[in-house]
Amino acid sequence: MAYETILVKTKDAVGLVTINRPQALNALNSKVMTELQQALAAFQADAAVGAVVLTGSEKAFAAGADIKEMQSLDFVDMFLGDFISGWEEIAGFRKPLIAAVSGFALGGGCEVAMMCDFIIASETAKFGQPEITLGVIPGMGGTQRLTRAVGKAKAMDLILTGRMMDAAEAERAGLVARVVAPGQLIDEALAAAARIAALSQPSVLMAKESVNRAFETTLGEGLLFERRLFHSLFATMDQKEGMTAFAEKRKPDFRNR
Ligand code: HXC
Q1: Relative to the CA of 139, which ligand 1 atom is closest?
Q2: What GO annotations for molecular function exist for this entry (predicted)?
Q3: Model confidence pLDDT, tens digit, residues 111-169
Q4: Quick check: is 111 catalytic?
Q5: Of these four, 32, 45, 54, 133, which has the most CB atoms within 10 Å of its CB?
Q6: Ligand 1 within 6 A of 66 CB?
Q7: d(Cα 53, Cα 7) in Å, to the nearest integer?
Q8: Residues 95/40, Cβ–Cβ less than 8 Å
Q9: DSSP string of 114-145?
Q10: What is the complex's ipTM, to 2 decimals?
Q11: Which helix (H) or strand (E) holds 29?
């Protein structure tokens, strides 16, 4: 499909989506978000793709939702149009989705990164929820996902002041999984995605579902959910293959079955 605001590539079993609105620091307008969802839906449907990397430019992963697009909307426009409700679909993508963040990840940009399964950041990355400086609050999960990721103290600090935090602070706070040198960002993220894509897809998708369950339920229910999924993986051929390959001291040949 031809996209206007994103670039989409597939390399072996890995998908790469690059937000590409350089004139606006990758601000997320409706077009970007629609195209992002279309690209992810296509990767979802493509059995050959095992994991996806979402990135932006060196200067900006995304500097937020498009302020100029929102500027003149009123409450009724927002409410009746259910503004951004569909954007949450990114969090429902079933395959592993890695955010590779360089430069600004602000507002909706930080929120989209947090909808991904984990964030690999360049040393140049800057995260923040500056909505308060615009007279609004985060609207795509910032008050919820950031708080779960970094705890109340730092979430309040960032959301109430609107300040940015750098990659080192974001890693210390637990928002970011790895920080790498700027030139290594895409290679590191693609390598992580390729490593995941080489594993057995049923186990990978269930691992993702199970970790996400930790944010939705009690410990007891989460442990039960995990155990049931664990049991169910013994119905797969890949479990037999993975364990047999270990015992035979060879690499497994997973078939996603
Ligand atoms: C629309 C944006 C934009 C945005 C940058 N631009 N961010 N346009 N929406 N979120 C545009 C600028 O207007 C400018 O266009 C061009 O990109 C370059 O930006 P500059 O400001 O000139 O760059 P710089 O001086 O380097 O400053 C970078 C920056 C600043 C610190 C990131 O652009 C900034 O503060 N941006 C807004 C960040 C923000 O508040 N994000 C939250 C948005 S609200 P021109 O045409 O002048 O060259 C949000 C709500 C989410 O995300 C929840 C609901 C969806």
Answers
A1: 53
A2: enoyl-CoA hydratase activity
A3: 999 999 999 999 999 999 999 999 999 999 999 999 999 999 999 999 999 999 999 99
A4: yes
A5: 54
A6: yes
A7: 12
A8: no
A9: HHSSEEEEETT-EEE-GGGGGTS---SSIIII
A10: 0.98
A11: none
Q: Is the CB of 141 under 6 A from ligand 1?
A: no
User: What is the arithmetic mean of pLDDT over 216-226?
Assistant: 98
Neighbours of 89 (CB within 10 A): 14
Q: What is the pLDDT of residue 184?
A: 98
* Pocket lining: 56 vs ligand 1, CB cutoff 6 Å: no
- Can you tell me which residue has the tokens 């984990």? 118
Are 190 and 148 a contacting pair, CB within 8 Å? no
Q: How many CB atoms lie within 10 A of CB 96?
A: 23
Residue whose CA is closest, atom 30 of ligand 1?
Answer: 63
In the reported structure, the alpha carbon of residue 28 is separated from the centroid of ligand 1 by a whole-number distance in angstroms of 10
Whether the CB of 70 sits within 6 Å of ligand 1: no
pLDDT value, residue 82:
87
Catalytic residue among 107, 108, 128, 142: 108
Q: How many residues does the chain have?
A: 257
